Amino acid sequence: MSAAVMNGARDVEFSRVIRPVAAPHEVLIRVRANSLCGSDLHYWHEGRIGSAVVGTAFTPGHEFAGEIAGGSGAAHGLADGTLVAIDPAQPCGECYWCHQGNQHLCPTMVFVGAPPHAGAMAEYIAVPLSSVFALPPGFTAVQAALLEPLGVAMHALDLARLRPGTHLAILGAGPIGLYVLMLARQSGALNISVIEPLAYRRDRAAELGATSTHGDVAGYLASVRGTPTGGADVVIEATTSPHGPRHASEVARIGGKVILVGIPDGDEFSLTGSLVRRKALTIKLSRRMGHVYPRAIEYVQRGLVDVEAIVTHRLPLSQVRSAFALLAEYNDGAIKVVLEP
Ligand SMILES: [Zn+2]
Ligand SMILES: [Zn+2]
Asked: What does the domain layout of the chain look like in residue ranges?
């Protein structure tokens, strides 16, 4: 079958690979949509995220959806042709964290599309039945694929525990930052400020309901000078910058909360000790997501969040190389790039 194959940084091609076969308790999925994620770009730029290193012939893709095309689905009410969403995380189910109900913290989880595990930028993929979510009628494959980044944003907000009236700041108006914005509007945030260096992404944030947008931290701080707290109650950091966490702590008010979601380029990030100490900040790191798929599905089904609103490009999978280059260079107003068969 055809698939995207990556052999290292800046090296991805549309190629032929062996078609997977569904093992017992697995279903075969005919992939209908993939979306490119910031984490895929780390594989593109650096060939790795920490210890997850792109080896030879690695197929990326973890934000995806498709139709059941065989395997053990029929026995569980999933007939061939049924459109499903797939959680790319496959926790072991047996470790301390899995038993605690914190499957997203499972240290031995298999993650589809993180090396060495092949992802879904292919015609077919086999996945465990336990990672498949049936969808209500009316869902598109692209909406279903975008449940994954929506879930990541939802988990970040779960950690933030927004109270009504919260002043929220979001660093980074990429897909996660924009989904945080869209969800926060439903979750009691009173002011939502978005800090983002790229003008076209600031514009999108404004269209999607940001109260204010700023090109940098200084611009935000100038806007809140003279207010009682001079900062944000909660800051969600969703950038790829190693300085993102430091910037987030500069934006937070004394006694505020910072949620770190972004994956920093180079796998290191900076914080200023005196600043975070004197502000007595609560800093939480967001890892993947809890059991949020059912809620994410309901949000989309009810039309509360238009997940496709951030999709800027749709390309055939055969143009995977162009898709990566487009997003990596921030060309042509790219925010979310989707690959279809
Ligand atoms: Zn992702
Ligand atoms: Zn586990």
From this structure: 2-145+306-340, 151-285
What pTM does this model have?
0.96
Strand, helix or coil for residue 215: coil
Would the pLDDT of 74 be above 90? no
Label residue 179 by pLDDT band (50, 70, 90). very high
CATH number of the domain at 2-145+306-340, please?
Answer: 3.90.180.10
Report the pLDDT value the prediction gives residue 55, as an integer from 0 to 100. 86
Distance 288 CA to ligand 1 centre (A): 9
Ligand 2 mean position, distance from CA 88 (Å): 14
Q: Do domains 2-145+306-340 and 151-285 have the same CATH topology?
A: no
CA torsion sign, 293 to 61 to 209 to 172? positive
Ligand nearest the Cα atom of residue 98: 2
Does the domain at 151-285 match CATH 3.40.50.620? Answer given as no
Q: What is the pLDDT of residue 321?
A: 97
Q: Residue 181: enclosing H or E segment and its boundaries?
A: helix 175-184
Nearest-ligand number for the alpha carbon of 174: 1
Ligand nearest to the CA of 108: 2
Nearest ligand for residue 95 CA: 2
Tell me, rounded to whole angstroms, the distance of Cα 262 from its chain centroid: 9
